[in-house]
Amino acid sequence: MTLDVSTEGPQRMLGKDGKTEFVIREATYRDLNDVIAINRKVLPENYPNWFFVEHLEQFPKAFIVAEVGGRVVGYVMSRVEYGWSNVNKGKAVRRGHIVSVGVLPEARRLGIATAMMLRAMKAMKIYYGASEVYLEVRVSNTPAISLYEKLGYKIVGRIPRYYSDGEDAFLMACPL
Ligand SMILES: CC(C)(COP(=O)(O)OP(=O)(O)OC[C@H]1O[C@@H](n2cnc3c(N)ncnc32)[C@H](O)[C@@H]1OP(=O)(O)O)[C@@H](O)C(=O)NCCC(=O)NCCS
Question: Per the record, GO CC terms (predicted)?
Answer without folding.
Answer: NatA complex
